[in-house]
Prior knowledge:
Elements: E1 2-7, H1 22-27, E2 30-32, H2 34-40, H3 43-52, E3 72-78, E4 81-88, E5 91-97
Amino acid sequence: MYKFYSNCVSWPSGDVFNEGGLSDMIDNAIDITRKTFMKYVYMSELKDIEMSLGYDNHYKQGLTMAGDYHVGYHRSKLHGKRVYYFRHSAIEYVFVNN
């Protein structure tokens, strides 16, 4: 399973433009579905992030992350290792394998 590592705002500045770093990860990403994303990441961590971003738990309570068509889900490589991430408000939230 993939655990939350960091978002791009908190990314180590020395690794943003390094070969295989954050910029390369973003440039080489492929789009995936939320369903695929959910197969690989820890749900408890994702739920915590969703709550911190202001999403509701259920669509009858308000907007959920699953219902927000502005959120994109992606698979890529970070320094040669597969990662999954989602993009919310132009911020990448990256999950890495242990």
